[in-house]
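Our preliminary data section would be incomplete without showing what the modeling component actually yields. Below, a chain of 505 amino acids is followed by its predicted structure, encoded as tokens that our downstream tools consume directly.
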Amino acid sequence: MIAILIHQQLRVRPISDKERSHGERMLLEFPGKGQVICHNTTPSQKSKVFSYNVVFEPEATQEDVLEFSGVKRLLEMAVEGFSCTAFCYGQTGSGKTHTLTGPPGLVERGTSPYSPEHGLVVRSFVYLFRLINERPDSHFILKASFLEIYNEKVIDLLNPGSARKPLQVRWSKETRGFYVENLFTVDCEQLDDLFAVLEEGMRNRAVGAHAMNAHSSRSHTILCVRVRRDLRADADVTCSTHGKINFVDLAGSEMTKRTHSTGKTLEEANNINRSLMVLGYCIAQLSDGRKRGHIPYRDSKLTKLLADSLAGNGVTLMIACIAPTRSNLSETVNTLRYASRAKKIKSKPIVKMDARDALILSLKREVEALHAENQHLRSALHVQTDYNLDSYSHHRTQSQIEPNKLYQLSQAELVDLVQLHMEENTALRAENTELFGIRDQLLRDHELLSRENERLLKKLEDVNSVCTRSPIIPARPTYSGSNDTNIWTNPATSSANSVASGSSG
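Predicted structure:
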């Protein structure tokens, strides 16, 4: 399993007409290679340099974001069975919703999915169905859901009801993750079905206005498209993978002094900032490799539902949206730092598959490996056998008859040929039996030698242990004199001989 870093993108929106009328100017510089230089308002302060995977300058189009952000690769992985997520975040009015769904009201009006004004989500739908159509060997089932987190309450945007009754977020022991209970899902067989899901959800989403943004998102939204792929791996075996792609549009962080929020709007802003603060703290904990302690996913509904995307078994793409003007400098720097921390988070993506299908696929791969090994052994044995048979037949017989000439032989010749082959087969069987007997004898001899070696090694260890415990003292030689010979004897033997001599004297 390979750890993958979160892919980090940066998109800079153009200066608006309102900002231009107030004399705002660009404070960002783009030297290339994914770098952004943020200049300060005073020359005495040092400029800050940030680096990302891709930087989309104000002139970048929606098609550029699709082509170069890595979303296409994300969709391909979702089709293969991975869990993928695309984030958009930043301060309010920085272009997050525009990046994902296009200008305000575009989707709600039912504009054609092929309109050039559409954002990342609709373009991803088009590309997803292109990928599906390019795989006729697989059967796909798409299911979509759309929810929002408004004032720390989870609302189903496809089935909100008259009172917008909140749904409960539960923990699943089976999947080891959080899920939304009773969330409505829609089967999507065509592109228009997915587009209808997005259109319905955008109509029901909570949107408000304040001093900084006339179409401010007052909730976080998560659009989830689940992709089930049934692939026929064999004549009788079908494996299913379960991938998904999440499109997350985070509500923008707000400075209430600038938005002039009051009453309900102020409550919404406080809840938005609180959930974003928890998300930022989770990202800070995950990106700090030195101290990986408790990650407070349970502190907000947003982090519960994004826990798997941040540091689980999925692949995540984060697009930070910023405003380039002086009045937004502090929020821009915070977003740039936020994005830099998120770049350090690692996840370990895996293909999600049914346990039964995973077992079948594993066994199928093992069978294929055994078949390959069997074929290799058969080919090697075939070469060796052909050589032995040819050599054996050359020594026994010199007759080599081609198969097409068998019909030209007489009955007596055929009988002689069959008899000859039967004799050769009998001789080969006898030779094989003899070889097997020799092999068995060698194995038995090898086993006896191994036992003998073990016995000798044990005896040698015993001798070494005795030598280690009590070293042998060499015997002092004594001389037993006689007129004819000089004899070196052991002291004990000499003493015994002396006693014997004394007794005889």
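Residues 383-399, 472-505 have pLDDT under 50 and may be disordered. Residues 88 and 319 are 5 Å apart (CA to CA). Preliminary results of this kind motivate Aim 1 of the renewal.
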